[in-house]
Amino acid sequence: MIRLRPGALADAQSIAQVQVATWRDTYAGVLPTDILVTMSVARHTTHWQAALLRRRAGECITVALVDDAIVGYGSAGPARGRFPVATGEVQTLYVLHDFQELGLGRALLRALFASLLRDGMRRAVIWVVAQNHARFFYEAMGGVGRTTRTEQLWKTSVETIGYEWDNLDAAIHTLDARMARTDR
Q1: H or E element that contains 144
Q2: What is the CATH number of domain 2-183?
Q3: DSSP label at residue 28
């Protein structure tokens, strides 16, 4: 059984486990191997505990569960950087490899968009490492790659693409229609 719910403090370690596993899978060959190998579930658990405790206005963390085990998560909040007023940002969205292609990414993205919309955001952006194959998912979900920037991740320069949605109402409607087609 697949379900989504808001993240809770007790989820921090499970979210960290998903983060470490998905980063190792997603960024192998993109980020330095020594960084990926030394990623620590304990350190990331501490990060997620803090994030779950300090949620500011407009921020959300959502987890995806299959048979009561967390297999994906996403977070969103007001856009960081120079974007028009009422722009939200999907800050993270990761699903374990073995649970991809089940509609969890689409469901998480829809939940994050809905949260942003409830908090007054009308547009959204997500930054994706250009070498991350998930960029094709965001394109399929209606995101338009408008902006690029170079970021430093562990002394490694990576090109990132800012995928944008100009109308969250329309984006949610499109995601609902796609989910309805796959549920048949």
Answers
A1: strand 144-153
A2: 3.40.630.30
A3: B
Adjacency order of strands within the sheet including 123-129: 2-6, 60-66, 69-78, 87-95, 123-129, 156-165, 144-153
DSSP string, 80-111: PSS--TTEEEEEEEEE-GGGTTSSHHHHHHHH
Helices and strands (H, E) in the chain, number of each type: 6, 7
d(CA 45, CA 13): 5
pLDDT, position 183: 58
The domain limits of the chain are 2-183
pLDDT at residue 58 in the model: 86
For residues 34 and 4, give the distance between their C-alpha atoms in angstroms, rounded to a whole number.
33
Cβ neighbours of residue 179 closer than 8 Å, sequence gap 6 or more: 103, 106, 107, 110
Query: Residue 27, Cα to own-chain centre: how many angstroms?
Result: 15
Q: What would the two tokens of residue 167 be?
A: 């109308």
pTM for the full predicted model:
0.93
Task: State the Cα–Cα distance between residues 31 and 28, nearest whole angstrom.
Answer: 6
Give the percent of the chain with pLDDT over 70. 98
pLDDT tens track for 26-74: 999 888 899 999 999 999 999 999 999 998 888 999 999 999 999 999 9
